[in-house]
Amino acid sequence: MGNAHSLEIDLSDRQLTSVTLQQLGALVSGPSAYRLLSHIKQDRGNYVQRLYLRRNQLSYLPANFEVLLSGLTDLSLRSNELNQFPLEITSLKQLVKLSLAGNGLTYIPADISKLRHLEWLSLSSNTLDDLPVELAKCKRLTHLDIQKNRFKALPNCIAHLYSLEVLLCQKNSISTIKLEAFPPSLLTLNMSFNLLESVPLALYNLPNIEALILSSNLIAHIPVELCLNNTSLINLDLHTNKLVIIPQEISQLKHLRRLNIAINQITEVPASIGDLLMLEWLNVNDNQLTELPDSIGNLRKLIKFGIVQNKLEKLPESIGRLTQLAKLDMRRNQFRWLPGSILKLRDKQDSTQNITTENREDSMVRALRPGVGSLKTILMGENEHLQYYEGIVCEMNNQDAIVYSSNMDNISAENLTHLHPVGSLSEIAARRLLDTLPAPAGSISSLQYSKDRKEHLENLPAHILPSYTLDKICLNARQCEACLRLYCESDIYVAELGCMGDSRVDVPVRFRMCSYRCAKAFMAIDKTSPQFYDDDHESNGLEALDTPSHNELSSNLLQESEPGFDSNLLRESSVTSTATTRHFSVTKCLQSSFRALFSLQHADQDLAVSVPNMSRLVTLSNVSSRPSLPTTGRYVTTDVSELERF
């Protein structure tokens, strides 16, 4: 710390109440240090470039300070007792970084403009309420920290700091911004913990902004212009405001990696959020959400997802596509069960195939489905309505459920009616129609083609496809997780208890089934066998958890369980080409639906669905490796944190 070629002198945390040049030298490297400083003054003054006097009790600087250390580039006087700006500093012509944070300063003199090389200026934790206009003469200033002061408005000089990249002004009392514009060079702006009631007009167009933090204000509305013009944003933080609506235009923030809208009054997340393909961190905790859009499954790079303390009852099936998700926090909601697709998120590096349940009355060894994900932490506490069922489940009135264990021999005839409901005419017509649609709109192509399917159906004449059936298919089409075909109405599920996360959390899940027959076939499949997924083709995470021999297995199982079952029903539907042929097929389909309605013995018998060719599925080895967790510094530039500590 003290030789003739020293670049840095650090006297921080020495409890100094005052300092002279003699004391300064003595504390550097012993009794000969003052002679050393004199030598530096005469021959090598420019060698001392950095001086740190942080966290002392200094109320002034020693005489001739600026003469002896005229070559300083970095000076930190953070956390002392300087009630006035030391004018000696203005003579340090080479100064690049200056910190006077944590003192008792009430004003900054106009002479600060003499520091023409100044790039970093930290004035946080003082009692300032304005800055001199002359500060704009510091043309090289890139980082300015004025947080924790008494500003009620941003100083006018900020608009003229044309090199400014980082502006920290959180924890003031700013209620309005009268600036016409911020410097276009701005990359990071933190205005959290102020009194803003709306997003200022000056923020509507920041072409280079990457981090915008407006949390803990009184903002009730996100202007569309904020999303349309600030497309370089990587980090957007609006937590703890009064937001009710998130605009659809948020999808324009294509580079966004971190979005925090927690602690607001938001009732709905727009489907367009699925267009934020770079998003890695999403926090919607403590809002009024009752559902999440299916498009959540498009956020394939999501690593952390918080949905704590909302009013959610279900997760979208597409949650299974978030295979890079490492942490899911879903505490304090109203979940009764989770979609079976969530089991895909289990860490692929976890090879455990069985687990013994020791804290439940029905202690037993449970087989676990292998995952293809990265989930390390799942938090589910304070969901009081979770139903830990296993077996075939038939929902009643969307609340109660009749549960059948794997042993179905003793089921009464009355309960069998729940498993073999007579399908409505519209449901029969919908299923038949879905089986005849051309690819990629057809059912085999999975729900990723829902937009194509809707467009195709809307082009059919009204006398071919009534509007009621059209709406039903477009809005309610679901995919059976055994046979992968689409249906609209079914109350039958297969319930399982999964085990996920490093803490081995019991996760009650349900797989959607189009019929009791599919449910029986699904339950007979070995859970621990190698699984196959095709993420590129089926983009919704609704893939059945099947073995490669699923075609043959399903056919055999169904023939054994239903002696009258015709295995020829398990066939691929033909694909028609021309519009005329399609219309004819639809008409024929609807006519056959009427006949089928009156000849039905069991609804699922006539509504048997085909199993697609599984040869297109890929093995687990094709799934990308789990990424490392992001740190806070990933969304806030490193020099911002350094500025706050300087």
UniProtKB/TrEMBL annotation:
Domain Disease resistance R13L4/SHOC-2-like LRR: 248-304
Transmembrane portions of the chain: none
Alphabetized InterPro entries for the sequence: Leu-rich_rpt, Leu-rich_rpt_typical-subtyp, LRR_dom_sf, LRR_domain-containing, LRR_R13L4/SHOC2-like
Record carries keyword Repeat: yes
Keyword Repeat recorded: yes
Domain of life of the organism encoding this protein: Eukaryota
Name the UniProt record assigns to this protein: Disease resistance R13L4/SHOC-2-like LRR domain-containing protein
A GO cellular-component term linked to this record: cytoplasm
Signal sequence coordinates: none
Keywords, sorted A to Z: Leucine-rich repeat, Repeat
